[in-house]
Amino acid sequence: MQHTESHAVKATQQAMPPRFMRLPTVMNWTGLGRSTIYRMIAANKFPAPVVLSTRAVAWRVTDLERWSADRPASSHCTNHKPSTDSTYSFSRKLERSSTFSR
Prior knowledge:
By secondary structure, the protein is mainly alpha-helical. The protein has helices spanning 2-15, 23-30, 34-42, 61-70, 86-100; strands spanning 20-21, 50-53, 56-60. A 3-stranded antiparallel sheet has the order 1-3-2. Strand 2 (50-53) and strand 3 form a beta hairpin.
């Protein structure tokens, strides 16, 4: 019976996702840069890492998932002013300057 239980535990552990993420994975997963992550941690807007050893930290996956779930569903807000398209304004300036130089 002991052999069967240890085999089942190993199979379960292999199927489980990692419990911690290191910084490069967190950056890739969130789309945030290193400085932004640490700035948000200082402002209590991002989960703090867990110390794994004297020179290693990582983030709990559950903390990151909770943070992600608490984020707004859409980044678009209703009172946001539309940005001006720099390509459009540059081409308009070019048209106007070429019109007057003829």
